[in-house]
Design a protein that fits this description.
This protein is an all-alpha fold. The chain contains 9 helices and no strands.
Length: 196
């Protein structure tokens, strides 16, 4: 990502970044991420292309920034302060509630971007990176009897599958059913580690 989001940004930069992010999601309600050009994005939010390139390499770089900003909005990092046995469930609930509040917009975006497009690929990549951080921060992460990358993929794919079934399939899962499924699927792995 061209922009370093760990650095403080001034008010103008915050407003500019918010405008680009909002414009991208508004455009994705009508078309796929792959078809959105930098020019179309800049036209929709009245910024010159040069301003866009001050912050981002391309549209996909902006998409990465959007995931980081959304993670910040959800304040998932706050869940890391919880005891390890409560973190996974708490993070999942935060994600579920965030998506549930934006269900209508989400449905429009998915309608034009599909589950196998670049947007979902980007989201999946972002989720895996955050889950890897979460697992690496766990005291017991080096005690799993299998490689860490396998655990990361298992957690990420379990989260993705449950969120997909909660929001993108005909027979949706309620929050309670999704949390029960998460506890069953991932809970058995976590219990095994905490037994050691």
């Amino acid at each position: 990502m061209k922009i370093d989001i760990s650095n403080k940004t001034n008010r103008f930069a915050k407003r500019t970044l918010a405008a680009f992010s909002e414009a991208l999601f508004m455009l994705m309600e009508k078309s796929s991420l792959e078809t959105i050009s930098v020019q179309k994005l800049c036209d929709s939010c009245n910024y010159p292309r040069s301003t866009f390139y001050n912050y981002f390499e391309d549209i996909y770089d902006l998409m990465e920034y959007c995931w980081e900003a959304i993670a910040g909005d959800m304040d998932i990092r706050k869940c890391m302060e919880l005891p390890e046995e409560e973190r996974t469930k708490a993070i999942f609930i935060v994600m579920y509630e965030y998506l549930n509040e934006r269900k209508e917009t989400l449905n429009k975006i998915v309608k034009h971007n599909g589950m196998d497009g670049r947007m979902m690929f980007s989201l999946s990549k972002h989720m895996k990176a955050r889950i890897k951080e979460m697992i690496a921060a766990c005291e017991y992460s080096n005690q799993y009897p299998i490689r860490q990358d396998i655990i990361v993929d298992f957690y990420a794919e379990t989260f993705e599958m449950l969120l997909e079934k909660s929001f993108f399939e005909g027979q949706v899962l309620s929050k309670e059913d999704a949390v029960t499924a998460l506890s069953f699927l991932i809970g058995s792995v976590e219990k095994e580690v905490h037994k050691r």
